[in-house]
């Protein structure tokens, strides 16, 4: 029987959502909207989130969130994808599909919230570890195999090269940088570098440069009063039409439409982005999260048992439906 070290590694944050902060990273990102109304944008797909909604964003997917109302507070957790390998998953050949806005009913949603609550407000290291592995186990239920999707973990040598390249691109994205110029930075051939970037980052070289430019464009559209054509040129677009098309492809709206959505309250939230919550928001968020804490009582069935029973019924029903579809 294989042995696994009980390593608990994650990054959690509760913060107020403002305007788009476009980003991507190699971790699994799980969002839980606590208060307000938020629009999530994942790879150009707009997903409206209401209080208590959960959304899992796969590694290296470009994404951003936008508050539709003031005081929209989110709990966000990052987990390394290889952490789920303990459940026998091959994180490099599949993806997760967890979106309560799309699939409203699933008996596993509340156990996920309970695990997040117990992870956030754990009593000791043992309860923290238990909540962490409970969460991993639950998330694994939403994993589907997809050979066309996924990335591989970099070797130390490749990781050093990738880090050097991404750092270079993030400093020079507004310039005209060809793949061959980039390859010279690490003494690789253009063909080899192209394959390496795709396997490690999950996106092509040109898409990475595009994301860097759009990331800066979002910042400038939010913070500055410069006109759109000037911003496009500053971030590396020499054709306004291409900038508008790229922006709409990634965010589902034009730069002009995005700017029209910005309100003073959003700008205020941006100035305090990922900083300490206001006293009211902090108290309300704590109350909401703690209301999902899993509390076991000797005089009543535990919530885990109840949810396990619901899960079994749900699985049985889905198997019956699949059997009917298969025979028709």
Automatic annotation (TrEMBL):
Gene Ontology MF term list: DNA-binding transcription factor activity; sequence-specific DNA binding
Keyword S-adenosyl-L-methionine recorded: no
Location of the HTH araC/xylS-type domain: 163-261
A Pfam family the protein falls into: HTH_18
Coiled coil start-end: none
SUPFAM superfamilies linked to this entry: Homeodomain-like, RmlC-like cupins
Keywords from the named record: DNA-binding, Transcription, Transcription regulation
Protein name: Transcription regulator
Source organism (scientific name): Companilactobacillus nodensis DSM 19682 = JCM 14932 = NBRC 107160
